[in-house]
Amino acid sequence: MKIAGVIIAAGLGKRMNSPTPKVLHRLCGNTMIGHVLNCLFQLRPQKAVVVVGRHVEEIIVHRASGILFVEQKEAKGTADALLSAIPAIKKFKGTVIVLNGDTPLITSKTLKKFLTLHNKKKDVISILSFIAREPGSYGRVVRDGVGNITSIVEDIDATGKQKDIKEVNSGVYAISPDAMHLLKEIKLNELKGEYYLTDIISIAREKGIKVGAYCIGSEDEFMGVNTAKELERARQLMKGSITKRWMDRGVSFIDSGSVFISSDVEIGKGTIIYPNVHLEGGTKVGRGCTIYPNVRIVDSIIGDGAIIKDSTLIEGSVVKNRASVGPFAHMRPGSEIGTGAKIGNFVEVKKSIIGSGTKASHLTYLGDAKIGKNVNIGAGTITCNYDGYKKHITIVENDVFIGSDSQLIAPVKIGKGAYIGAGSTITKHVPSMTLALSRAEQRHIEGWAIKKLKVKSSKLKVKKKEKR
Ligand code: UD1
Ligand code: MG
């Protein structure tokens, strides 16, 4: 089936009461329009057109190959928005599917079902409707005595009886390109000062054109977001469906309600996720991992069997199989933690490669470093990578032992198997298998403390006499 998708997203979104264009509000890691576009792409359309308004530049951040953006100069209603898209689909032969940019929960599964019905029944125009518990501001679907749709009546124009109708318009339409000219016959709605796309139904019916309305899918899926309150409700619904999807695929949650997972995240079977975990962006978590409470992982890859301990932030990094990170660790972008490596409490790693089996267990900063395999990095080690102007590299080869409280002043290289004595400040390259020590030698002054005590007590006696 050949389809062209048009997403109308040029409305002012006044009811959001926000400076951000409505369709750019975010939920579960993507904008509303981003979710609708992803859904459209799953239908593999021949063409994808987005109608944008005065916030055109901001919306165009979603530019992906093949999307055509057309501008609706003034927000004069949904019919006028679709009219703006006509030049972009002029030569298209197939079915035009129209979606609202403010229905982020729609699924391609339901849209496919809808398009199949539209084609099977040979309709010229079809709408997708659903039953709403509270029809609120949705357009009501009016049917005749034999059940055929005759019109859609917007809530503000509906009579008391029409307001009671529970079947409402989802804002999803399938239209044959030949029927697009009907848009020009839609008259201005005086009450709202807009041209309603919904009026295409009554116009088509009056002309004897075949029109259908298919009541499929769930109410939640078609939720139209017009206010901040509705956005939060949509977010909660999407959040719930994402965690449910991962539970169905063998992921365990302890208090799933407190966990946030972006729509593009992937999680392997057997992974356990504790409360207040945020998995964002394109994060991929492997199989059999444990993610403890208050962890946030953004755009990162976590290997199979890895353990991420409490209150850890991982951004743009790779944690390989069976590695352990945290508690209270920070992986900054460009870091890679090797297989079985351990990054412990209060350790910050920035743009550094940590070899397999290496341990940095406590209070350490590793920046712009390349650390080999099976290295022991003692507590309080710091790579001094910044001289105030430039960043410099630290290289630590395999099997090195770095004693606690050492500073490695980059650029510097520690050769394979070398030892750095605790408390050293290393400024020169250390050859392989060497012990480097840079601390001052310890001196003992015997009896020094006794002399100090004597001086102190004689001074106290003088003071007491003076007081008297
Ligand atoms: C619309 C439908 C209503 C349906 C509901 C489903 C009309 C008149 N009403 O109402 O029947 O039940 O969606 O959620 O169509 N837009 C433009 N240009 C404009 C105006 C709107 O591109 O000039 C876009 C908006 O950005 C939005 C979509 O069209 O993505 C729907 O507009 P909105 O104002 O949200 O319509 P609703 O009142 O929700
Ligand atoms: Mg709406």
Q: How would you characterize the overall build of this protein?
A:
The chain is α/β, with parallel strands linked by helices. It folds into two domains: 3-217, Spore Coat Polysaccharide Biosynthesis Protein SpsA, Chain A; 246-436, Hexapeptide repeat proteins (UDP N-Acetylglucosamine Acyltransferase, domain 1, 3 Solenoid), CATH 2.160.10. Helices cover 19% and strands 30% of the residues. The chain has eight helices and 41 strands. The strands form seven sheets. The chain has a 16-stranded parallel β-sheet that branches. Strand 4 (47-52), helix 2 and strand 5 form a beta-alpha-beta unit. The longest helix has 21 residues, at 228-248. The radius of gyration is 33 Å and the shape is elongated. The termini are far apart. The model has no long low-confidence stretch (mean pLDDT 95). Uridine-diphosphate-N-acetylglucosamine is lined by residues 8-11, 23, 51, 72, 75-78, 80-81, 100-103, 137-139, 152, 154, 168-171, 196-198, 224, 226.
